[in-house]
Design a protein that fits this description.
The protein is an all-alpha fold. 72% of the residues lie in helices and 1% in strands. The chain has helices spanning 3-29, 32-53, 59-77, 83-98, 111-122, 129-139, 145-152, 156-173, 182-204, 215-231, 236-249, 275-291, 297-309, 319-332, 336-350, 352-365, 373-384, 388-401, 405-422; strands at residues 208-209, 403-404. It has a two-stranded parallel ribbon. Helix 1 packs antiparallel against helix 2 (32-53). It starts with a helix and ends with a helix.
Length: 423
């Protein structure tokens, strides 16, 4: 095998093991920055040794053991400035040294708790939502700063600053990088799930730029969700979120035409929906509902997606069931976006005349000002009522509000169609 091939294998191993490696190290040294530095040192050591000696049977354990040795050497070289710093250094050295009691289990000892602890730390409410997303993608998903920046269409320097500040904030807070318990765990889990779903949604419907979707972002979120489900199998909302993402991801192939154009739900070829992802999503939904009868917001949204997944066409969809699910979701998590989605479902179940007054009320309330889907929904209802001039104006308004080029194109095309209907 050539040196280049070996290096590629080493990089692939590191990408797979890096999150577990950083998680284990962070729990011992209680410093994400130092944990990442030690992990990188271990990678450098692998690049030096593995091309000659071959990739070890347990590469992850080798990397962990090497990182720990580097950590002990680094700590011993540090100058102690005062008693407090000396005590902290001593405790860290003791934790690293003690972890060598069973070298063969270097990477596997409580790794589930360690990785879950890292996820909870990266999604800590101390951080802004943007910082949580960036840190989670960097530490847990293993994306580079450049990859994260491309995904969210922001400068690489901006992402780098977010990550550095997030690490500093967590370090200053003195986190132990452990899974919280009791009430704190329940509260923090919501932040974790929110971050994962934010990442998924940015891939599913990009908020800005030229691309309608960024599947890599959604794939990373789905991978994170599956990791969470494996690490926290007793949490129903984790399975609910996984179910929701699996079911939505099943539509990816049908959401774009052959020339990359946007294909909306009503026009999608459902034979192109991924049946394996649908089956996985429905299984995850069953697990969520079996764990807890009172469905949470992600489980309810997954149930909504399941209604579409089980229907062979738009017209055969049980829209009354969807209205009922939105009622249940609104009672649990009232928001104007849920109310807008309920209005869309009501318009399908009972006709546009029943839904338009609800949309008008939302517009008058002003809580969705600047949200492009509000005029888009209103335009669609007006078009179905034959009020083409008003519909054209609303489609144009929606197009002016969206920052996504592909979405703007389809909204302007619908505005042109309404203008043609007038004449």
């Amino acid at each position: 095998m050539s040196a280049a091939d070996t290096n590629r294998q080493i990089e692939a191993v590191y990408r797979i093991e890096s999150a577990r490696l950083v998680a284990g190290l962070a729990r011992m040294v209680r410093d994400i920055g130092l944990a990442e530095e030690l992990a990188q040192d271990a990678l450098i050591a692998a690049l030096e040794h593995w091309p000659q000696g071959g990739i070890p049977e347990k590469p992850g354990a080798w990397l962990m053991a090497t990182a720990k040795r580097r950590g002990i050497d680094m700590i011993r070289r540090r100058k102690v400035f005062d008693r407090q710093a000396g005590e902290l250094t001593r405790q860290t050295e003791e934790r690293l040294t003690a972890s060598f009691a069973d070298p063969d289990a270097a990477l596997d000892d409580d790794i589930g708790d360690e990785l879950l602890g890292l996820i909870f730390a990266a999604c800590h409410p101390l951080l802004s939502p943007e910082a949580r997303v960036a840190l989670t993608l960097r530490l847990v998903a293993g994306l580079t700063t450049a990859e994260i920046a491309r995904g969210f269409l922001v400068p690489e320097a901006t992402i780098a600053q977010r990550i550095v500040r997030a690490k500093r904030t967590l370090g200053d807070a003195g986190l132990r990088f452990e899974v919280p318990h009791g009430t704190e765990r329940a509260e923090r889990l919501g932040s974790v799930l929110e971050v994962v779903y934010l990442i998924f949604n940015e891939g599913y419907s990009a908020t800005a730029g030229d691309d309608w979707m960024r599947p890599q972002m959604s794939e990373e979120a789905l991978r994170l969700g599956r990791i969470l489900a494996g690490l926290a199998p007793e949490e129903p909302e984790v399975h609910g979120l996984v179910a929701l993402m699996e079911l939505q991801a099943s539509r990816f192939a049908a959401r774009r035409g052959k020339d990359g154009e946007v294909v909306l739900l009503a026009d999608q070829d459902r034979s192109r929906w991924d049946r394996l992802l649908i089956r996985r999503g429905l299984d995850a939904l069953d697990r969520a509902t079996a764990l807890f009868a009172n469905r949470g917001p992600y489980t309810l949204q997954a149930a909504l997606a399941a209604c579409h997944a089980r229907s062979p066409s738009m017209n055969s969809t049980d829209w009354r069931e969807i209205v009922g699910l939105y009622d249940e979701l609104y009672a649990l998590s009232p928001s104007p976006v849920v109310a807008l989605n309920r209005a869309v479902a009501l318009g399908m179940a009972e006709g546009p005349a029943a839904a338009l007054p609800l949309v008008e009320q939302l517009a008058a309330a002003g809580t969705l000002d600047g949200y492009h889907l509000l005029p888009s929904v209103r335009a669609d209802l007006l078009a179905r009522l034959g009020r083409h001039d008003e519909a054209r104006a609303e489609f144009e308004h929606a197009a002016a509000l969206t920052q996504n080029r592909r979405e703007r194109e389809i909204l302007l095309a619908r505005a042109e169609a309404e203008a043609a209907a007038i004449s």
